[in-house]
Amino acid sequence: MACFQRESPALKEILLRLYRAEKPLEIDSHSHEFGSVEYHIQASASHPQIAYLSISTPLLHQEFVLSTGLPRYTLEMVRGICPDVVEIIEPPNEGYQLTLRLDFSRIPRKKDAGKMIASIASVQGVILSSQLKDMLVNVNSLEVSQGMFRPIRLIYHPRELFFVIRQPEKITAVFPMRFKEDTDVIISTAFFQELMDVGSSKAFEKAPRCTWSPIPPPELRGEPIEDLSTNGGFVSFEITSRHVEGKRLEKTVWNLLNFHAFVKYHVKSTRGFIQRRMRQRLENLVEVLNKIGTEDEHPIKKKSRGSKALRKLLNFSRPKLLKRRYNFINKIKRIRSRIRIQWFSRFRRKWLSFPRFSSLTRYERLE
């Protein structure tokens, strides 16, 4: 995840090493960031307090590339970093856009020295943010009033770009979102929809209006198809003059430059949270299954409740019950056979005997 920071960590480390060195150091170091930003630092032992910093960085838009170097307003912002320490060398070294002369002897030996070196290490951020600031400040420019709404393609990272569209009384920033995995697309889509719902509430009515759409907005018609082919849709922010007044300008610029990084950080954190919850649920389920398996191996004998006769009856098996039933029936038969009723046999012969009938028709055998 590429997070755009104000100061370069590698550059800051080298400058602090030069500043804190007890003996003179000779350094000729090259460092790269984001795959496209290059720093070249030169320091000689003969002049330990003097160092030269050259920087090569891609600009946000090709229109800012001038034959004479960086725009004037960008150079003025670079001079304003540390006027007593930083000096711009013109022309810059071959292959670089900017070369600075740093005088460490003018940095006070106090706690503020670290802050001054950190501000010097943020020179690449000053170059990029100055270009975006110039666009946002000129919200009510002449070409906007004439209806010129041509999108400006901005890129500060090889794989991340966004568009700035100047419109009457506002500027629209459109971010095409791309993700490698389908799960990231699902998480980000839910996040964008929630961002729209929160932005439309009364609590955030002063914030830039946010919209999300799976298809490109009408303002991007005619742009190259490779810039509009996304799987995460398009997020748009409407920036008015109220959002670029005073100190709000700096905050708005850095929020736009770090929007891709913020979304990727949110997706990564959400995916990690879901994976931790699933792992925890799985561990709890395995623990329950292991407990059940232990109880099956060592069953607990339960005492049967109820009367003594019922417990005794439940202890008999089926063959025993059948045998007891058979013996009971035979016993009843023996008891019944012993009963004798006087004169019952004579009564049965006289009244319960079936009468005999003789046929009235007689047949003779024919010979």
UniProtKB/TrEMBL annotation:
UniProt KW keywords: Actin-binding, Cell projection, Cytoplasm, Cytoskeleton
One Gene Ontology CC term in the entry: cell projection
Segments traversing the membrane: none
Chief place of localization: other
Signal peptide (UniProt feature, chain positions): none
GO annotation (BP), single: Arp2/3 complex-mediated actin nucleation
Top-level taxonomic group: Eukaryota
Subunit and interaction comment: Component of the Arp2/3 complex.
Record-given protein name: Arp2/3 complex 34 kDa subunit
Organism: Oldenlandia corymbosa var. corymbosa
Classification of source organism: Eukaryota, Viridiplantae, Streptophyta, Embryophyta, Tracheophyta
